[in-house]
Amino acid sequence: MRSVRKNITMELTYKFTNKEVTPWGGMVFLKQFLEQINFSEQIQSCKELPMPGSNRGCDLTTLIETFICSIWCGATRFSHTETTRSDRALSKIFGWKKNPGQDAYKRFFLKFSEATNIRISDYFFKWLINNYQFDNFTLDIDSSVLTRYGQQDGAKKGYNPQKKGRNSHHPLIAFINDIRIIANFWLRSGDTSASNNFFAFLENTLEKLEKKK
After folding, report:
1. Lower CB density within 10 Å: C or N end of the chain?
2. What does the chain look like in DSSP terms, one character per residue?
3. Do residues 105 and 81 make contact, with C-beta atoms less than 8 angstroms apart?
């Protein structure tokens, strides 16, 4: 049997536009999600969040939204946020008037302390959990190993079955599998044992769950 080859000619149309384009068009769904859960209102209501120090800087909501958006677009370090910062179409989707640079994020997070982290975590976890209508759930708690490269606070050599001798973090994580959410998360240094601060973590998790049983 003879094979027959057909030459298929495709005509492509080229056009120019003055509109901004972006490879992150799917972020419109993130914008809709944040609006649906009233995320910006929760940011303004959380008094524990440190306020930007300069009147010329971005407002608090923009600072946090741009950082979250950068992570969703694949950023794994502060320098990667410059990619989304220069995306004008992404700014129009979210309505950002001014995008912060990587130094703005660094200054912002340097204002956090361990106590501040816990208070902010309590606020947002309680808000998230209270939006779910459930009780009589099963709480699972486990630890994990996060391999680190470079210089990160708390990254130390400890138990690391995948990358022996490599610095890592050893977080504790609480799950509610019934509704598939994380109920609490503590980032610990890599040289801690699996049970380190377990009871304090459990107590803090139950505080976040408040009236849930």
Report:
1. N
2. ----------PPP----SS---TTTTHHHHHHHHHHTTHHHHHHH-TTSPPPS-TTS--HHHHHHHHHHHHHTT--SGGGHHHHHT-HHHHHHHT-SS---HHHHHHHHTT--HHHHHHHHHHHHHHHHHTS---S--EEEEE--EE--S--TT-EE---SSSTT-EEE--EEEEETTTTEEEEEE--BTTS-TTTTHHHHHHHHHHHHTT--
3. yes
| pLDDT classification of 124: cutoffs 50, 70, 90 | very high
Q: Pick the closest to residue 61 from 71, 74, 52 (CA basis).
A: 52
For the beta sheet containing 139-143, the strands, ordered from the edge strand earlier in sequence to the opposite edge, are 139-143, 172-176, 181-186
pLDDT, one tens digit per residue, over 65-102 is: 999 999 999 998 899 999 889 898 999 999 998 889 99
Angle among Cα 64, 153, 61 to the nearest 5 degrees reads 5
Q: Quick one: tokens of 116?
A: 């501040």
Using one digit for the tens of pLDDT, what is the confidence trace for 27-65? 999 999 999 989 999 999 999 999 877 767 788 999 999
pTM: predicted TM-score of the whole model, two decimal places: 0.78
The per-residue pLDDT for 31 is 94
Chain mean position to CA 77: 12
